[in-house]
Amino acid sequence: MAIVRRKCFITYHHADQDEVSQFVRTFDHVKDAFIARGLGREMSDNIIQSTNTDYVMNQIRQLYLGNSTVTLVMLGKCTWARRYVDWEIQSSLRQGEITTPNGLVAIKLPSFEKDQKILPERLSNNLLQNGSHEDCYARCIEYPRTTEQLVNAIEAAYQRRTTHRKWIVNPRDRMSYNRKC
């Protein structure tokens, strides 16, 4: 059976660029598990330069999220502190009459500390609700050891776009500034 390669928007802290680039090279370029969308060395070189947050959000939606179906949040030590990660998760979770949200999967990079509990707040809001992991929208996985593991996580997130969209928590407020890590 052929793998369905979903278009995945990748959000991360640029301090983790090397690990994210390796992930994209391994699982997109070599193993064909997904099609990467996003900003960075291994992806598009069309960088958005503006201080207007509404403009930046609109450009991210139009240029990168618009044709993706799943967002991969690459978790490093300080991912939780980055405003662009928050903005990109917020944009990924937008829904409306003609807008389907992206599925949401967080992946712990090899440098993610095992005892680390701090995750991006908007991601955390969508991981656990009412004390149950079943009644939530997003998932968080360890760094995939196999292509099958990653493909299954991406496909499950893709399906949750419709089956679990009622569990999305996406307040309008967004981070104004990066936090100190």
Question: Which key terms come to mind for this protein?
Answer:
181 residues, alpha/beta
What does this entry show, briefly?
The protein is α/β, with parallel strands linked by helices and 181 residues long. Helices cover 33% and strands 14% of the residues. It has a five-stranded parallel sheet with strand order 2-1-3-4-5, sandwiched between helices.
Account of the protein in words:
By secondary structure, the chain is α/β, with parallel strands linked by helices. 33% of the residues lie in helices and 14% in strands. The chain has helices at residues 17-30, 53-65, 83-93, 121-125, 147-163, and strands at 6-11, 34-37, 70-75, 103-108, 139-141. The chain has a 5-stranded parallel beta sheet, with helices on both faces. α4 links the parallel β4 (103-108) and β5 (139-141). α2 packs across α3. The protein is globular and about 40 Å long. The N and C termini lie far apart (44 Å). The mean pLDDT is 87.
Helix content: 25-40%
Number of strands: 5
**Which term fits the overall shape?**
globular
Mean pLDDT: 87
Strand order of the largest sheet: 2-1-3-4-5
Stretches where pLDDT falls below 50 for ≥5 residues? none
- Portion in beta strands: 5-15%
What is the C-alpha radius of gyration, as a whole number of Å? 15 Å
Largest sheet: 5 strands, parallel
**Assembly classification:** single chain
Number of discrete helical segments: 5
Structural class: alpha/beta
How do the SSEs run, as a string of H and E?
A: EHEHEHEHEH
How far apart, in Å, are the first and last alpha carbons? 44 Å
